[in-house]
Amino acid sequence: MNFDIDCLRTFLLVADSMSFSRAAESVGRSQSTVSQQINKLEAQVGKSILERRKGRVLELTAEGSKLLQYARRILQLNDEAFGSMSDEALTGFVKLGVPLDFFGRDFTTWLTAFKKLHPMVGLEVEANQSENLLKRTARGEFDLSFFKQDAGAKHGTVVLKEQLVWVGSPGFVPEAGSSVPLVLFPEGCAYRRSAQAALKSHERPWHMSFVGPSFECLRAAAIEGMGVTVLARALVSAPLRVLGPGHGLPPLPAVEVVYAYGKRTNSRVVSELAIFLADSLANSGVMEKARMTPGRRRAA
């Protein structure tokens, strides 16, 4: 059985926008045609891929989320293969917004790799807090943005889910019952919101010790023992360490890393960059999980 490329592309648009009408506008087709393409995919899969109510898309099903990951990879390979056989180079300009913590990942390496594949593409990248990225993308100030949201918030296409952890220097131990000194990003950051909400719900006093505008600033302040910070587990590296329940700190939630297109954005270059970065993020998450398994640690 072979999946229809056009159906997969339409499904990706529906998943991105959570709307049949917006997907139909993007591909220049009727809503009924879009619905037929989704129905065709569901018939092939043998299961529902979208939760719908009165014509509205509510969320992806578990099968839909799984298919979405494969659809991205299939479409990326399809478009790369087509591009390699064509003289038409990918061109255009993308204004990209990313969270501050992306610079604690291999983000610049991913961008460099994309530029090598598509040297005629221009990029303007801005790092900011997730809340600001979400609002400004909705206003059309970015063509594409990646940001973090609370699990299930449904503001964009989910790339991966990451567990948040308390992090401190090797010698830092918060005193039991004392006010917790926090090292965090400015207001609007999902990490900051989660940290403050967790402490408040457990009635643990806290105060701001350091507010940093970049991942490097936060990391340096935490290493010097100015306080505890909150990061995705995948971003913790020596000499920083994860502070467990034994340090008297409340549990933290998981957050979703998602992407969303800007208002009226509809171009091949933007979707190519979104898929490329989403795949890079998802693959980095898989590699991190493999690195953390006991079997891999013993083999290392």
What's the end-to-end separation, in Å? 40 Å
Give helix and strand order, one letter per element, not per position. HHHEEHEHEHEEEHEHEEEHH
Class from secondary-structure proportions:
alpha/beta
Q: Write down the CATH class of the domain at 162-255.
A: Alpha Beta
Hey, roughly how much beta strand do the residues contain?
Answer: 15-25%
Rounded average pLDDT = 86
* Rg: 21 Å
Q: Uncertain runs with pLDDT below 50, 5 residues or more?
A: 286-300
Can you summarize the main beta sheet? Answer: 7 strands, mixed
Which percent bin holds the helix content?
A: 40-55%
What is the overall shape?
A: globular
Tally of separate helices: 10
Question: What is the name of the CATH architecture of the domain at 162-255?
Answer: 3-Layer(aba) Sandwich
The CATH superfamily title of the domain at 162-255: Periplasmic binding protein-like II
